[in-house]
Design a protein that fits this description.
globular, Heat Shock Protein 90, 3 strands, three-stranded antiparallel sheet, alpha+beta
């Protein structure tokens, strides 16, 4: 498992699936970028038959878990 925890502003649970799509940016984002980061992570996870889980981190931000199958 690969875990990434962000202590930032977090993400509305309604946007969890949307942020995995290409060019989607969260509605309250004031930073630069084009919204490709998590869609690239999703593509790599699919190549490796991994599962992505998005949730809330204890410090308030986004928690991402990528679970890989054991060989």
């Amino acid at each position: 498992m690969l875990a990434v925890d962000d202590s930032g502003a977090g993400l509305d649970p309604d946007e969890h699936e949307k942020v995995l799509g290409r060019f989607y940016r969260a509605s309250d984002t004031n930073t630069c970028g084009v919204g490709l980061g998590l869609s690239i992570v999703k593509s790599i996870a699919q190549i490796h038959s991994a599962q992505i889980e998005l949730g809330e981190f204890d410090l308030g931000g986004l928690a991402i878990r990528i679970r890989f199958e054991l060989a």
